[in-house]
Amino acid sequence: MKYMMFVCTDSEPDTDPTDLPDVEKWVADNDARGRRLTGDQLAPTSAATTVRVRDGELLVSEGPFAETAEVIVGFDLLECADLDEAIEVARAHPMAREGRLELRPLMTLPD
Questions:
Q1: Is the pLDDT of residue 49 over 70?
Q2: Per the count of CB atoms within 10 A, which of 19, 40, 60, 80 is most buried?
């Protein structure tokens, strides 16, 4: 099953003083196991553009769609057997302590 893992900042990171996991090791390990299909960091929210259409009119604005303290800073597309495996993959990511990770299954649309 495919999961989109949104990598987000958090206003209350973990205070555990032990070293964070190495993100490059996390990427290499999950790439080697075929659990991470792709992923990358995102440009800052100052580079975001929001597009909407209302009453047939195109509305384009600079910035993210929502004004929040926490922002999405990256993503990883995961291939896992089930949600339990996806949670274990996310648990080992450094941002599980520094930020937050949102797991969302991809929907399969009918043909």
A1: yes
A2: 80
